[in-house]
């Protein structure tokens, strides 16, 4: 392997220069590898007793939900068996099947969500599944990986797995502990500082992907919103729904505008948006068309990036990280559509990933320069998690927020919010 690497060094180095990727490798990825190494070795304290308490609590909740499901079904059965669940819902209880599979009728998540209004039992089945997943993956899973002597958990970060350039965390994955469901959030109560009189601290970028979209697309309305520090989803609602001011925006309108904003970032189709918002495809198509009319810079960016991808066969982030798209000119509609959505999203998500990597390098450097005891423990996409002596928190907050906000200069300001507390949950 070493001999092979030595022999390709010259041609690879030449390609790095041609692709303008020297800065990406030598100033971002390689220095970051050392910082990630420190974070992996340091680990993070997880209170095993707290996890065991959650285990008992979740067991109790699952038993209660089980009983409710059995009462509504009129019999006991294996809730985890799609086949038995299908029989209960569609044969015994007579609900309308939505999708057929080889072994019967589908009980997949999307199918059950559509059945919710018609079938009261479904709400309990969905909740049961969510909590059972948290229990098995995060509660039981974490107990297996806590070092019994130190109480620490050491995740591993992979720099070369996610094609957008995001970091991924494995053994255990600490980046996707659920945040939407309270039971999922509770798992974070067990993540605590390893010393008394220390606190946890986290700082995260606010709407970084939409800010990157504003920067790349140069859309004047987006840029104005961020420069004025206005709520981007409310201002989007005003433009898309033809309102006079943000005072007219209802919570539901803001929610819909948020779905459209993020949908556009991920290259959503009218079908995808109609499913998300529970509206017709025609209404979803109208939302998207109106959005592009009101945000012409975004429409121009999307058209140009797809055209560029078709010509070059790849797209790039602001730091020239490339993603090759072999299917971008495919005759197969599904393959081509997926490649087009990837072409739209990768420069945005990938640039956001690059920015937080630059921020991590600069934060680590400043912690050392300021001689702070604070440690950087985790990176969860747009968020950095630290532990520090309580007395250091004000200095840490100033240092981290300033450094993250100025990590990369965009045409609009980056916004960072920091919070301290006794556990990761409290943040």
Detailed description of the structure:
- It contains 16 helices and 13 strands.
- With 427 residues, it is an alpha+beta fold.
- The strands form five sheets. It has a four-stranded antiparallel beta sheet with strand order 11-12-8-13.
- It starts with a helix and ends in a 6-residue tail after the last strand.
H/E topology pattern:
HHEHHEEHHEEEHEEHHHHHHHEEHEEHE
| Helical stretch tally | 16
Task: For the record, give the distance between the C-alpha atoms at the N and C termini, rounded to a whole number.
Answer: 45 Å
- Order of the strands making up the biggest sheet: 11-12-8-13
* Overall residue-averaged pLDDT value: 95
Number of strands: 13
């Amino acid at each position: 392997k070493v001999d092979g690497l030595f022999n390709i060094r010259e041609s690879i180095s030449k390609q790095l220069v041609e692709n303008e990727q020297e800065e990406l490798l030598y100033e971002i990825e390689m220095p970051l590898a050392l910082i990630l190494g420190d974070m992996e070795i340091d680990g993070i304290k997880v209170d095993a007793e707290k996890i065991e308490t959650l285990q008992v609590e979740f067991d109790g909740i699952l038993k209660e939900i089980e009983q409710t499901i059995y009462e509504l079904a009129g019999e006991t059965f294996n809730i985890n068996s799609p086949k038995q669940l299908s029989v209960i819902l569609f044969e015994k209880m007579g609900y309308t099947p939505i999708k057929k599979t080889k072994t019967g009728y589908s009980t997949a998540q999307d199918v059950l969500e559509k059945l919710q209004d018609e079938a009261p039992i479904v709400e309990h089945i969905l909740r049961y599944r969510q909590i059972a997943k948290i229990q098995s993956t995060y509660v039981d899973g974490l107990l297996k990986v806590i070092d019994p002597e130190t109480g620490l958990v050491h995740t591993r970060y992979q720099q070369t797995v996610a094609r957008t350039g995001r970091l991924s965390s494995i053994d255990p994955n600490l980046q996707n502990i659920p945040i939407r469901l309270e039971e999922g959030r509770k798992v974070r109560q067990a993540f605590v500082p390893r010393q008394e009189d220390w606190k946890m601290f986290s700082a995260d970028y606010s709407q970084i992907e939409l800010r990157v979209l504003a920067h790349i697309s140069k859309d004047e309305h987006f840029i104005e919103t961020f420069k004025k520090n206005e709520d981007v989803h409310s201002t989007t609602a005003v433009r898309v729904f033809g309102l006079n001011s943000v005072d007219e925006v209802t919570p539901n309108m803001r929610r819909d505008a948020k779905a459209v904003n993020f949908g556009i970032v991920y290259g959503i189709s009218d079908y995808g948006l109609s499913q998300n918002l529970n509206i017709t495809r025609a209404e979803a198509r109208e939302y998207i068309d109106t959005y592009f009319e009101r945000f012409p810079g975004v429409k121009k960016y999307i058209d140009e990036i797809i055209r560029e991808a078709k010509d070059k066969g790849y797209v790039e982030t602001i730091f020239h990280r490339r993603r090759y798209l072999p299917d971008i000119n495919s005759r197969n509609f599904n393959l081509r559509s997926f490649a087009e959505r990837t072409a739209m999203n990768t420069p945005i998500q990938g640039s956001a990933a690059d920015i937080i990597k630059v921020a991590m390098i600069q934060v680590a450097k400043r912690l050392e320069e300021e001689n702070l005891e604070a440690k950087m423990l985790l990176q969860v996409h747009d968020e950095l998690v630290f532990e520090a002596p309580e007395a250091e928190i004000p200095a840490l907050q100033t240092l981290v927020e300033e450094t993250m906000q100025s990590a990369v200069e965009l045409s609009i300001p980056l916004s960072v919010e920091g919070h301290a507390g006794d556990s990761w949950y409290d943040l």
